[in-house]
Backbone:
C-alpha cells in the first residue's frame, strides 16, 4: 500500500491520464492529493467514485506524501521535485528535468526495473518517443545487439498537451469550413499538415526531441556504442505516436526471429498482416497499453542480413507518459 499519493499537474492531458490509469488499475493508496497551479486550484475532479478539490501546488504540499507523480513541465519539476524528495516523497517525474542526471534512474519497467531501487528520491520517466520506440527494440537487442538505429517519428499533437489537441480539432473545423487556421500552441497550422517537431534546433542541426532519443536510449540500454540518428515530425493525429525504425544488428537476423522474440515480449503486440496489408495505426494504439509493431521485414540494402525494418505505434499519453510512471509507482509499492 502506497499511503498517500499526489498527482502534480492533474488538470493537464497526462494528469488526466494518470487519474484514469490509477482508477483502472486499482492502484493501492490510502489517500490521494491532486495538485496544480493556482489557476486550476479549487476545481473539482471526479475520481474513483468521489469528488476531489484540486489544491494549489506549494512547497508544503508534500507533507506526508509517499509517492508523487509529476507531469507539470520541466520548470515546475526542477522547483518542486527536490523539495518533495527532501521531505521523504518518492517523485516519479514525467519531464526532461532530471533524465540525464547520473543519480536519477531513467526507467522503463519492461527494460530496466532494477534501476528503480537506485533512486535518491527522484525517478525519471523517459521521453514519449523513446519509450514507444525502444520497448520493442529491447528484446531484440538482448538477443542480438543492435549496432545502429535510424528512427523517423510521426508524433501526435498530444505530445504538446491538452491545448494542442484542442487546437487540432478547432483548426480542422476551421479548414473544413473555409476559415484560415489560427496557430497558437504551434508556430504553424497543425491541421492537415506535417512539420518538424516543435522543439529547439541544436547547433548540430538536430532538434532537442531527436537528441533526447539518442541520449536516453544510451542511458536506458547502458550502451553508448549504439549509433542512433532520428528525425522527429509532428503529424495531424490527436494521440498515439508512430515510428519507422531501421535496425542494424551485430549478427545476421531473420524477420521470423524478430516475430518470435516480439510475440513473448512484455508490453508489445503485433499487427503484421502482409496479405491483408494491415499494420499498426494510431487508432489501434489509442487508449491501449501496449506498443504495436508491424511491417517487420529485412533491410534489403544490407547484403549481410543484419538489417530489419519495423513500424510501431503507441499511445503517447498512456505508455509514452502516464502508464510508464504508474508502472514505476506499482513497482515501488510491491
Residues:
Amino acid at each position: 500500500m502506497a499511503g498517500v499519493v499526489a498527482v502534480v499537474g492533474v488538470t493537464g492531458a497526462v494528469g488526466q491520464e494518470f487519474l484514469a490509469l490509477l482508477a483502472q488499475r486499482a492502484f493501492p493508496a490510502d489517500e490521494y492529493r491532486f495538485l496544480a497551479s493556482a489557476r486550476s486550484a479549487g476545481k473539482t475532479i471526479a475520481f474513483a467514485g468521489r469528488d476531489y478539490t484540486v489544491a494549489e501546488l506549494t512547497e508544503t504540499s508534500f507533507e506526508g506524501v509517499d509517492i508523487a507523480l509529476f507531469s507539470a513541465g520541466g520548470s515546475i519539476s526542477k522547483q518542486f521535485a527536490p523539495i518533495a524528495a527532501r521531505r521523504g516523497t518518492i517523485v516519479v517525474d514525467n519531464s526532461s528535468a532530471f533524465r540525464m542526471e547520473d543519480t536519477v534512474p531513467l526507467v522503463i519497467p519492461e527494460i530496466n526495473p532494477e534501476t528503480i531501487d537506485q533512486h535518491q528520491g527522484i525517478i525519471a520517466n523517459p521521453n514519449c518517443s523513446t519509450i514507444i520506440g525502444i520497448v520493442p527494440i529491447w528484446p531484440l537487442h538482448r538477443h542480438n545487439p543492435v549496432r545502429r538505429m535510424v528512427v523517423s517519428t510521426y508524433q501526435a499533437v498530444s505530445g504538446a498537451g491538452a491545448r494542442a489537441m484542442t487546437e487540432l480539432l478547432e483548426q480542422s473545423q476551421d479548414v473544413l469550413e473555409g476559415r484560415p487556421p489560427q496557430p497558437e500552441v504551434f508556430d504553424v497550422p497543425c491541421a492537415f499538415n506535417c512539420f518538424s517537431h516543435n522543439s529547439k534546433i541544436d547547433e548540430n542541426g538536430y532538434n532537442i526531441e531527436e537528441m533526447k532519443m539518442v541520449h536516453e536510449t544510451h542511458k536506458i540500454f547502458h550502451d553508448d556504442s549504439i549509433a542512433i540518428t532520428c528525425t522527429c515530425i509532428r503529424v495531424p493525429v490527436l494521440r498515439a505516436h508512430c515510428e519507422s525504425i531501421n535496425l542494424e544488428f551485430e549478427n545476421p537476423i531473420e524477420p521470423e526471429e524478430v516475430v518470435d522474440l516480439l510475440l513473448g515480449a512484455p508490453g508489445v503486440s503485433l499487427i503484421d498482416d502482409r496479405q491483408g496489408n494491415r499494420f499498426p495505426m494510431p487508432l489501434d494504439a489509442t487508449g491501449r497499453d501496449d506498443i504495436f509493431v508491424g511491417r517487420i521485414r529485412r533491410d534489403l540494402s544490407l547484403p549481410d542480413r543484419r538489417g530489419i525494418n519495423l513500424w510501431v505505434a503507441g499511445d503517447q499519453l498512456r505508455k509514452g507518459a502516464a502508464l510508464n510512471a504508474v508502472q514505476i509507482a506499482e513497482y515501488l509499492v510491491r
